[in-house]
Specification:
This protein is an alpha+beta fold. Helix content is 35%, strand content 28%. The protein contains 4 helices and 7 strands. The two termini are 20 Å apart.
Length: 162
């Protein structure tokens, strides 16, 4: 597998995330690695999670090389996007301690969270980032489908919804 990285911070962060996921009792058996992008995929409960290691190109610090870890999950797919659903998601966002609901390119309901990567990336923060996405996606998928329709993303493989 040959990945290209935008900067050294992104590569370092990728290696740290990979080490964490492959040694984590919570995730090592559910993890898949992308062969072409610095992404990892997890299935945990009814949640399908994507963990992206991205270079952070435009930021407020003079330091040039930064990276972030962005974990996100499809919560529901094929849910009709209505003003009532948007109001619900925005209201729920105000209650979230970590992360926020968002919409995917195809109108899917997503939940995502990010942490700063690099040499000082804290593994507790990384684990909290991933677990917050897992917990919210696994909890809210049933509630949103019941109230607003659509389908839980667990009914589809990663290839069908990615």
């Amino acid at each position: 597998m040959s990945l290209s990285f935008f900067n050294a911070a992104q590569e370092l962060t990728y290696r740290k995330v990979q080490d964490y996921l492959t040694s984590s009792a919570l995730f090592k058996d559910q993890m898949q690695v992308s062969a072409h992008e610095p992404f990892f995929y997890l299935t945990y409960g009814s949640a399908k999670i994507v963990i992206e290691v991205l270079a952070w190109e435009v930021h407020p610090w003079e330091m040039r090389e930064l990276a972030i870890v962005r974990a996100w999950s499809w919560v529901t797919i094929e849910t009709q996007i209505t003003s009532e659903l948007m109001h619900y998601l925005l209201t729920e966002n105000s209650r979230m301690r970590f992360g926020a609901f968002q919409l995917g390119k195809g109108g899917e309901v997503l939940f995502g969270n990010s942490v700063l990567g690099g040499e000082n990336m804290d593994l507790m923060e990384l684990q909290t980032c991933i677990l917050s996405v897992v917990t919210i996606a696994d909890t809210y998928d049933d509630w949103i489908v019941e109230r607003f329709g659509g389908k839980r993303a667990t009914h589809y493989s990663m290839n069908e919804i990615a």
